[in-house]
Amino acid sequence: MRNIINFNRKWDFTKQANEIPAAMPADWNFVNLPHSWNAIDGQDGDNDYFRGTAYYAKSFGKMDLPEAEQYYLEIKGANSSADVYLNGKKLAHHDGGYSTWRVNLTDAIEAVNILVITVDNSANETVYPQMADFTFYGGLYRDVNLICVNESHFDLDFFGAPGIAVTPTVDGANAKVHVETYITNAKAGQTVRYTVYDADENIVDTVETAETSADLAISNVRLWNGRIDPYLYCCEAELVENGEVIDNVCTRFGCRTFEIDPENGFILNGKEYPLRGVSRHQDRWGFGNALLPEHHEEDIDLICEVGATTIRLAHYQHDQYFYDLCDEKGLVIWAEIPYISKHMPTGRENTISQMKELVYQNYNHPSIVVWGLSNEIGIGGSDEDLLENHRILNDLCHEIDKTRLTTVAAVSMCKMDDPYLQIPDVVSYNHYFGWYGGETSMNGPWFDKFHEMHPDIPIGCSEYGCEALDWHTSDPKQGDYTEEYQAYYHEELIKQFFTRKYMWATHVWNMFDFGADARNEGGENGQNHKGLVTFDRKYKKDSFYAYKAWLSDEPFVHLCSKRYVDRVEDETSVTVYSNLHEVELFANGVSVGKKTAEDHFFKFMVKNEGETELVAVAGDQKDCSIIRKVDKFNESYRLVEKGAVLNWFDIDAPEGYLSLNDKMSDIISTPQGQQLFMGLFAKMMGGKNGEEPQMEAMGFEINADMMSMMGGFTALRLFTLMGGMMDVKFTKEELLGLNAQLNQIEAPKKN
Questions:
Q1: How far is it, in rounded angstroms, from Cα 82 to Cα 88?
Q2: Which of 504, 534, 552 is where one domain is finished?
Q3: What pLDDT is attached to residue 712?
Q4: Are residues 185 and 119 part of one domain?
Q5: Are residues 241 and 273 both part of a single domain?
Q6: Closest listed residue to residue 148, CA positions, set 249, 245, 3
Q7: What is the C-alpha separation between 456 and 464, in angstroms, rounded?
Q8: Residue 146's beta-bridge partner residues?
Q9: 198-214, pLDDT tens digit by residue?
Q10: Are residues 114 and 81 part of one domain?
Q11: Structural domain containing residue 217
């Protein structure tokens, strides 16, 4: 019978070696798996984390292993390329940092063994990802096992797959279950016993045959019905020789139907089932990608608490344990490979191998409904090589898996008629109107326009969000990184997206803050802070509760801006979120009033005198906070960007005149402002006065349409972003000189 031995404990580790050791090294460090060498330097900013080759070594004796005829090393995650050596002999190489792969050790095993795994996360032109807004943590960051099996066994060599594939088909009140198994070194006379169990481990149907496939039946089938009832069956396959079971595999599965309709969105088991949820990166503070089971469990519990029905598992294959949890909890999943941002003509084979691993390894998970072909890959437009790569991946998914659909996550700059949007079955877009330019009000109308242009293509939003840290204000503005602006942004997006039923899925970017070592912004470097929950999972931002108010049935009430205590205004705005019909707010025990809100966002004005205890009451739910009247704004609430050439509060902004703190849309709405900036851009990009400057940033063209989207940026923020995107640097003196010119231009009058 199969034995699985966990190999996580006591590895020797180093980043300094340059050859495979012949004996166990005395000067390396001991580590236990899972392990990442970038758990600290991959989260602190400046994009200087170690990317290179590191070495893991472990000794073991054959006598300490269970007796078996074949021994396989199973590696569940080594980022991003790895080689396996046993007793100095190289046995395998693997490219792709997020999937399971195995190596047959049998012929190289000796009485005493030294196993060495080299892992390399350095930059190259063949293995994805290479350009993306997250840290590529190096390491053996998931479990490593030794699998001991009979010479005849369910396959362990084929793309890390489990050796069994279950395809249920719902047929009225019943279900047919087609099972295929894959056997290595099969022998005459062997049979396979297939058994389906219900969730209580009762036998539902069983068949024994010499064939490697079988059809079983479930009467009165209980459907896998998302969060409502995520019911799971189990299928076991046993390899039998002379009446003895010599190997077995088991997989859970669910019986369900789904379709994605361009008008009515996602339909599960014949009923509309709106997919409203989040995206997830797998890393966390102090661990990188080296997560423990309790970390995955905490993540899924938080996602369920917010009321999500779907998760986009970005931007790579996640841990099998997390897919299992999604099956159990009833989350509908988008699973994808890291074909992201930059199309590499030399990387096609890697996209194919990573897609095969993703699909074959995850075929049995009922939670997964779409395979993601790529993310923002059309940022620079789509050439023929990119299109061909997508057609190959799309056909491959449909060839391997005839039960699911394909999708892409397109970036805002991708034109609605781009040919690569015609390749997958459904489409989603990553839009940040209201954060990276534009206004929040642009989001819904943009999707209406796409829906009108392509009425037969299901359209969704695969990313939207904005960053928030522990900064606060009573006057939130785009780009200020305050918790209040993030809450406002998500209130607006919720109202726009959740009322458009044709949108097949919406995924907030992101459920959790995550490591992005290239980022130096927001006052805390090395992270993307768009999460609804902080990187350490300790604090739920106000926007978390905005979604909970719309999506969760668990009664609650939440007072926003709890960390914003000191306030200068005489009367201050207080926001309360609840999924209950009516909220009453008390200030120092006195009722401010009762309110109802169809949008679940309750707004009150409260006198700010001395110290005030606020209590929000909805039904039998209660939440409390404190505000305090101060004469001067508490500067600890205001972002001061470390290393910034110029902060917004250093800028002269005379009333009635323009400054760098004004939005670009206001500046270029004036003839003088338009002339000033168009001349500046033309000079920067080598254009001529009077002509529209043709600029490029991060591979895409910035033209009049792009400038329109960027109208929501303040001029200062635009120049700051340009410094990172285009490597165009401005000195403090240059910016102050430009501001002085703007101070001479009258600001447009507001209607």
A1: 15
A2: 504
A3: 67
A4: no
A5: no
A6: 3
A7: 23
A8: 5, 73
A9: 999 999 999 999 999 99
A10: yes
A11: 164-253
- Distance, in Å, from the CA atom of 335 to the CA atom of 128, rounded to the nearest integer, reads 16
Q: Above 50 in pLDDT, residue 698?
A: no
Same domain as 672, residue 591: no
Tokens of 162: 């489990």
Give the chain's length. 751
What DSSP line would sit under 559-605, residue for residue?
A: ES-TT--EE-SSEEEEEEEESSSEEEEEETTEEEEEEE-TTSEEEEE
Mean pLDDT of the chain: 93
Same domain, 333 and 413: yes
Per-residue b/e over 301-334, b at no fewer than 16 CB within 10 Å? ebbbbbbbbbbbbbbbbbbbbbbbbbbebbbbbb
Q: Residue holding tokens 């600029």?
A: 695
Segment 638-657 shows an average pLDDT of 77
pTM of the complete model:
0.92
User: What is the DSSP code string of 305-370?
Assistant: HHT-SEEEE-SS---HHHHHHHHHHT-EEEEE---BSS--GGGHHHHHHHHHHHHHHHTT-TTEEE
The stretch 328-352 carries a mean pLDDT of 97
Are 131 and 341 contacting, i.e. CB atoms less than 8 angstroms apart? yes
Q: Is residue 533 part of a domain?
A: no
- Can you give the pLDDT at residue 690? 45
What is the distance between the alpha carbons of residues 233 and 176, in angstroms, rounded to a whole number?
Answer: 13
Q: Is 483 a catalytic residue?
A: no
Residues 123 and 34 in one domain: yes
H/E element, 723: helix 715-725
Q: Which among 610, 635, 660 is the end of a domain?
A: 635
The token pair at 561 is 């801006």
Query: Average of pLDDT values for 333-343?
Result: 96
Closest CA to 361 of 226, 227, 508, 251: 251
Share of the chain above pLDDT 70, in %: 93
- Structure confidence at residue 21 (pLDDT): 96
pLDDT at 701 over 60: no
Amino acid at 263: E
Catalytic-role residue among 336, 376, 521, 524: 376
Max intra-chain CA distance, the chain: 94
| pLDDT score of 68 more than 80 | yes
Of 736 and 79, the structure prediction assigns the larger pLDDT to 79
Residues whose CB falls within 8 Å of the CB of residue 422, separated by 6 or more in sequence, listed in order: none
Cα distances (angstroms) measured from residue 319 to each of 43, 142, 281, 283: 21, 8, 11, 11
Are 269 and 328 part of one and the same domain?
yes
CATH of the domain at 70: 2.60.120.260
Residues 714, 662 contacting (CB under 8 angstroms): yes
Between residues 678 and 470, which one has the greater pLDDT?
A: 470
Instruction: Give me the mean pLDDT over the 512-529 stretch.
Output: 92
The pLDDT of residue 75 is above 70: yes
Cα 569 to Cα 232, 476, 593, 618: the distances in Å are: 56, 14, 20, 27
Task: Give the domain CATH number at 211.
Answer: 2.60.40.10
pLDDT of 71 strictly over 80 = yes
Q: Write out the two tokens for 344.
A: 């590499």
Q: Domain tally for the chain?
A: 5
408's tokens: 């892409």
pLDDT, tens digit (0-9, with 9 covering 90-100), for 236-252: 999 999 999 999 999 99
Looking at residue 691, its pLDDT comes to 46
pLDDT of 723 above 60: no
Contact 711/438 with Cβ under 8 angstroms? yes
- In a 13 Å sphere around the CA of 590, the CA atoms on its Cβ side amount to 5
Q: How many Å apart are CA 390 and CA 398, to the nearest integer?
A: 12
The letter for the amino acid at 606 is: V
Kindly tell me if the per-residue pLDDT of 90 is higher than 70.
yes
SS3 674: helix
Q: Using CA atoms, how far apart are residues 500 and 496, in angstroms rounded to an integer? A: 7
